[in-house]
Amino acid sequence: MMKPFVLVPIFLLLFTSLSTAQTLTEDQLQVRVKEVAKTLRCAVCQSESVWESNAELALQMKEIVRERLIQGESPDEIRAYFVSRYGDFILLKPRALGLNLLLWIGPFLLLAVGGVFLFRTLRKWVAETSPASPEDLSPIDEKSRRRIEQEIRALEPDK
């Protein structure tokens, strides 16, 4: 037989959850429905949340959210219910687990790899085009020297 003092916390927990569900005003309930429905994807529209969509399925989903909130379920429990029925696709913001982690990290990883590649390529180009020291330059032959002087004189204004 259970002791009465063990049953008291259980009754308090049940009474508290029932009283919170019943004390929600219509406005509070509407706000909570909106908060949960904005995190769920409409299975018909797919580009809108359940809250924004006017599809019949979205209206039914909003009603389910409303009923479950009245029953005292938390927003996470309601989302878990929809995930169990539709999969992770139903969440507008995918969870960062498993392959979804690649979706979260992938763009940053590609950006880092691209940055390293760009840095190495630019460094190589700069090294190839940097001016060499005078000792490394080969002397200009006489024919080239005359050609350069001729071109410089052609650019000078007539005196």
TrEMBL record:
One of its GO terms (cellular component) is plasma membrane. Keywords: Heme, Iron, Membrane, Metal-binding, Signal, Transmembrane, Transmembrane helix. Possible subunit of a heme lyase. GO terms for molecular function: metal ion binding. Residues 1-21 form the signal peptide. Belongs to the CcmH/CycL/Ccl2/NrfF family. This is Cytochrome c-type biogenesis protein. Residues 18-141 form the CcmH/CycL/Ccl2/NrfF N-terminal domain. The chain crosses the membrane at residues 101-119. InterPro entries: C-type_cytochrome_biogenesis, CcmH/CycL/Ccl2/NrfF_N, CcmH/CycL/NrfF/Ccl2_sf. Pfam families: CcmH.
